[in-house]
Amino acid sequence: MLRNFLTVGSWTMLSRVLGLIRDQLLAAFLGAGPVQDAYLVSLRLPNMFRRLFGEGAFNAAFVPMFTAKYETEGRAAALRFAGQALSALIAWLVILTVLCELFMPLIISILAPGFQGERFALALTLTQITFPYMIMICAAALVSGVLNGLGKFGAASAAYLSFNIIGIAAIFLGAYVWHNVAFTSAWGVTISGVVQLGALYWAAHRAGVAPHLIRPSFSQDIRALLRRMGPGLVGSGVTQMNLMVDTIISTRLPVGSPSILYFADRINQLPLGVLGAAAGTTLLPLLTRHVANKDRVSLHTSLNRALDYALLLTLPATVGLIALAPSIMAGLFSYGHFTVADAMKSAQSLRAYALGLPAFVLIKVFSPGFFAEGDTSTPVRIGFFTLALNLVLNLALYKPLAHVGPPLASTIAALVNVAILAVLLRRRNVFKPDPRLKSRVTRIVGAAIMMGLWVAAAQKFVAPDLPNWHGVWRLGMLGALIIFGGVVYAISLDALKVVKLRDAAAALQTRIARRRTR
């Protein structure tokens, strides 16, 4: 499991790094203003449906069914089911896309009620360009689910690099060829969906598991899939509605606020996307097999180790983001049209997001515990409660706290969400913390706090005014502080006997030696 966890995490990390470069270019060329606000809103809608239909309820229902059918009925039956599901998904998404394109003005007025004049018109045009991306990326997510269900995680994770590669190329073309970064970036989004679907289908074809399109029909398997999907669709919809609430509130803040929140969230998403995606992707098929085999001991062990790995990597990221937020936002984004003042506001939002980072990751760890048992209804009830809580908190906080209000509301809602998930899984005998987990988590927390204190002290004495340094020197010092923090964390883990550095180095050397002999 750890190898698959690291495989998905490594590819996702590379994708996130490229995404960071893409965001830096967007910040430099568009800044934090009306054009950037409009472009970011144009990404919200197709991404919302992508997460809803591609990576949310559909895959949560599809992957366990595909895996179980492959194990019990063989490859042919599993691929026939995958083809039926792919055909039904594409047919539904084409209809939805046509309807949304026709009623886009109304949709934008609901999604961005604070937009008027130029921002509204631009957001409308850009969203009409980006929306077809949803069809391709949702189909790609299903093909990815087929590969993941068979334990082929590398190809599925690597294909998603194309979104950021094409996005970076589109920004440069817009800046230096067509002189319209927003429009070329919007077209880049849609084109990247075609490339991702093609790459994944090619990988599935090479592996002999490519699903084929057939005439959509409501077969027994599709009806079972829809029954499983129903509650989960509502549950995923609740999550996306939480994000929509944040977007709606941000458009009512001063011009540039959606951009300030976006770049803060993108930094928070760097560890969240890597660790959350790795945990959710690798855990679901594994836990499904344990449930099918009625192996509760292995179920408890797998969930405990996933929780251990997730916190080992998430807690230092949380502490580091809080300690270095101003320097991170200035060092990464304060170039071109994105000012130091914009970076400082975004740093405040980042700290609010980072407080909830462990909760956001653990939601990804705990959710497969429900999905593996075919239960997609319980998270729905939790989701509705946290949606209401997030809405109330947003309305209460956005005026007094401005750009800090929405991320703080999301953090509090996530903390409540993960607490309820953990309690319910404990009662169902799915999650049973063992003594090893309890001991290690305590020591990991201690190591992360120690790292944060050393990093904060180092910045105070070496570079107290780091956000105002010249770009190259600022970025270099930021990198040095991050490396220093990593070294302190590693030493602390060794001192607290969480990870022995000597054993880790020996394991790495063994792994490298094995690769060389292949």
UniProtKB/TrEMBL annotation:
Keywords tagged on the record: Cell inner membrane, Cell membrane, Cell shape, Cell wall biogenesis/degradation, Membrane, Peptidoglycan synthesis, Transmembrane, Transmembrane helix, Transport
A Pfam family matched in the record: MurJ
Keyword Transcription regulation recorded: no
Transmembrane regions listed in the UniProt entry: 89-111, 131-151, 158-178, 184-204, 309-333, 353-372, 379-398, 404-424, 444-463, 475-493
Cellular location(s): Cell inner membrane; Cell membrane
CDD domains from the UniProt entry: MATE_MurJ_like
Function: Involved in peptidoglycan biosynthesis. Transports lipid-linked peptidoglycan precursors from the inner to the outer leaflet of the cytoplasmic membrane.
Protein name, as recorded: Probable lipid II flippase MurJ
